[in-house]
Amino acid sequence: MRKTMRALLMVAAALAAVVLPASAAQAAEGYDRCPDGHYCMFSGLDGTGDMIALTASTPDLAALGMDDRAKSDWNRTGSTIYLWSDANYTGCTAVTSAGPTGKGNFFPTYRDFFSSVGIGGPGGLSCGTPPGEDG
């Protein structure tokens, strides 16, 4: 009987160990993965996919595996973000504002388009708003 009781206790302990992690807090998902004070780019829409989190300007997103891959972003900095079409802050720029409007999906024309990020100014020649995408 002691062996049976010991075996049952061991099984109960093993089950408790399996159940406990499931009750732990859920890991952040989507946009919520972006830490406060960072500018984040995501390879998927709505903050999904791979993510990079920046605190400084980045001249070449290829070094971080995000060159021409971003589809959404969230600006959690206090600065305007300038997204450059080409590496080393060349080509045209689009802007992501700080604050509540600085989160969302890129216009379809600008998905998988950006190659460098400037935190703060100056920007360059505007890439403009694609025709039919001004809403």
Automatic annotation (TrEMBL):
Pfam families listed in its UniProt record: Inhibitor_I36 (PF03995)
Signal peptide: 1-27
Keyword Chloroplast part of the UniProt annotation: no
Keyword vocabulary terms for this entry: Signal
Official protein name in the record: Peptidase inhibitor family I36 protein
Species name: Streptomyces millisiae
Taxonomic lineage: Bacteria, Bacillati, Actinomycetota, Actinomycetes, Kitasatosporales
